[in-house]
Each structure stands twice: as structure tokens, then as C-alpha cells.
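> call design_seq(struct)
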């Protein structure tokens, strides 16, 4: 199965984003407005997956999010992988925020 994907440059500014990284990664730096649901908790919390169409899914580099997109699409969710993940997001100069007012970083 081919995973639906888009480069960071094609993600709209107000896109519905789901960040599937772990809590420490999220806390260090994430896209403003993104929702957090770690990949490790996805199946148990499937009911919390936003119903946005499309739902842009992101991780650190694109690998975990591709797996999540494949799973979500199989479940009927209109999900799209963000190629390059948050590393690509930050490299493109897209905004990144951190929890607690710390300087944002992609870890």
C-alpha cells in the first residue's frame, strides 16, 4: 500500500496536524496548533483521532508518521504523512513552539 504523503511546503498554514511523537519530543518542540497523540498510544486512543479531512500526521523524520497514516487510512481516516517530519518542518522555517516557554528544539 502506498502511503499518502506531502512535502512540508504543501502543508497549509492552518492544516489539522496530528503529532505522533512521544511526550518528551512533543514538549521540546512542535507545530503550533498540532494535536498530540503518541504512536505508542494510538490504538488505545483511536477515538481521539481528529476527523479532519485531510489530517496531516507528523513525527520526527516521517517514519513513524508513515506507519500511523497507513494504519489510519486502513481504518477509514483521511490521513496524509508529512514527509521529513518535524525535522523537515523546522528546516523549512515553519513555526515551532515548546512547552513551558523553553526554546523550541526537534529532538
Amino acid at each position: 500500500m502506498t502511503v499518502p504523503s506531502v512535502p512540508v511546503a504543501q502543508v497549509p498554514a492552518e492544516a489539522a496536524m496530528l503529532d505522533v511523537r512521544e511526550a518528551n519530543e512533543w514538549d521540546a518542540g512542535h507545530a503550533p496548533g498540532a494535536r498530540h497523540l503518541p504512536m505508542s498510544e494510538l490504538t488505545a486512543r483511536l477515538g481521539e483521532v481528529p476527523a479532519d479531512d485531510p489530517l496531516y500526521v507528523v513525527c520526527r523524520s516521517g517514519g513513524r508518521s508513515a506507519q500511523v497514516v497507513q494504519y489510519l487510512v486502513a481504518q477509514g481516516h483521511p490521513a496524509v504523512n508529512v514527509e521529513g517530519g518535524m525535522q523537515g518542518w523546522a528546516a523549512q522555517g515553519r513555526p515551532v513552539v515548546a512547552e513551558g516557554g523553553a526554546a523550541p528544539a526537534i529532538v
